[in-house]
Amino acid sequence: MAVFTAVSLDDLTLLLKKFPLGNAIAIKGISSGIENSNFFIETERGEYVLTIFENLSFAQLPFYLQLMRHLAERGVLVPAPVPDESGELVVPLHGKPAAIVSKLEGTSQMAPQPVHCAAVGAMLARMHLAARDFPLQQPNLRGLDWWNDTTPLVLPFLDERNAHLLRAEMHFQSAFAACDHYHRLGRGPVHADLFRNNVMFVGERLTGFFDFYFAGCDTWLFDVAVTVNDWCIDLATGVLDSSRVRALLDAYHAVRPFTADEQAAWQPMLRAAALRFWLSRLYDLYLPREAEMLTPHDPTHFERILRERIATPAPELFA
Ligand SMILES: Nc1ncnc2c1ncn2[C@@H]1O[C@H](COP(=O)(O)OP(=O)(O)O)[C@@H](O)[C@H]1O
Ligand SMILES: N[C@@H](CCOP(=O)(O)O)C(=O)O
C-alpha cells in the first residue's frame, strides 16, 4: 500500500491544465514506496510520474526538485521535473505538495552483477561532479546531528550488547567527524539513499537514479559507502563481494579519482553508512510516525553490516 492520497482522472485533468503536457489519458497508483503517494500518469505528451509528498513541506521541496533538474540538465540520468506554466516545480494537490517528473524506463536490478555495479559507480561519480555548482544548500538531514538526537531515543529499546555497540560507534564516529582528514574530504550534494530499489536498469543499461528525498550536502565518500553497503554485499551476511566492490569503485574512480584522504577515511565511512541505516531502521521500528502504514525495514540487517565493517579491514578504495 503506497497510495496514501487518492487522485482520480478528473483530479489529474484539472491539474494538467497548468502543465504543458496536453490532456490526461490515464492514471495508475504505484504500489511500492513507503514515503509518498506515487502514480504513473499518461498524457498526450507521454508518460510521467506524479508524486504527492506526504511528509515533506512546500518549503523543503525546492532543494530536491531543483537538484534533480540541475542534474538532468547536465546529462545525469535522473527524472526531470516538469515545470507548470508559471515555472513552478511544486504545486498543491489535495492540500499537499505535488510534482510531476519524467518516467524512467526499466526496473530495479535486485540481484546486481559487477556490470550493474560499474554502471552505478560511474553514474554516481558523474552525479557528484555535476552537482558541484548546484547553488542551493541543505545538510544531510540524516547526518551526525540526527544520529546524536536519535541515539538516546532508541537506546532504551536495545539489549545491553546492542546498546554497547551503538554507544561505542557513536563515540567512534564523533571522533572521526572531528579529525583533520575528514574535513579535507570532497563534498557537495549527495543522493544518500542509493539502494538497489532506487536505480532503474534495462538489462545492463542504467536508465536512472530516483528517490532523491534523502539528498543533502555531505561528503561524496559517504554516498559511495551507502551505495557499496547495499549494492556490493551478500544480503544474508552483509559481507562485501569483492568483484562487485571492485567494479563499483573502479568505475567511480575512473570518473572522479579518489584521494588519499578518502582512502584513509574509507573504513570509518563504511561504518558510518551502516550506522546511519541501523539508526533510522531502529527509529522507524520503535518510534513509528503516526501515519506510518508499512512494516518497517529490519534493523538487524544493518547491525550485522556494522559489526562486519568494524571487524573486517575495508577493501582498497583504489589501487
Ligand atoms: N521517475 C520514475 N520513473 C519510473 N518509476 C518511478 C519513478 N519514480 C518512482 N517510480 C516508481 O515508484 C516506486 C516508488 O517510488 P519511491 O520514490 O521509492 O517511493 P517512496 O518515496 O514512497 O519510497 C518505485 O519503486 C518505482 O517503481
Ligand atoms: N533505503 C532505506 C529506506 C528508504 O526507503 P526508500 O524506499 O525511500 O528508498 C533503508 O533501506 O532503510
Automatic annotation (TrEMBL):
Question: Transmembrane helix: present as a keyword of the record?
Answer: no
Q: Which UniProt keywords apply?
A: Amino-acid biosynthesis, ATP-binding, Kinase, Nucleotide-binding, Threonine biosynthesis, Transferase
User: Which NCBIfam families does the UniProt entry name for this protein?
Assistant: PRK05231.1, thrB_alt
Give every Aminoglycoside phosphotransferase domain span.
27-258
Pathway in which the depicted protein is active: Amino-acid biosynthesis; L-threonine biosynthesis; L-threonine from L-aspartate: step 4/5
Q: Which domain of life is it from?
A: Bacteria
The family annotation for this protein states: Belongs to the pseudomonas-type ThrB family.
EC number(s) given by UniProt? 2.7.1.39
The GO terms this record gives for MF are: ATP binding; homoserine kinase activity
UniProt xrefs under InterPro entries: Aminoglycoside_PTrfase, Homoserine_kinase_II, Kinase-like_dom_sf, Pseudomonas-type_ThrB
UniProt xrefs under Gene3D superfamilies: 3.90.1200.10, Phosphorylase Kinase, domain 1
Give the UniProt record's GO annotations in the biological process aspect. threonine biosynthetic process
The name on file for this protein is Homoserine kinase
**Top EC group:** transferase
- Catalyses which reaction? L-homoserine + ATP = O-phospho-L-homoserine + ADP + H(+)
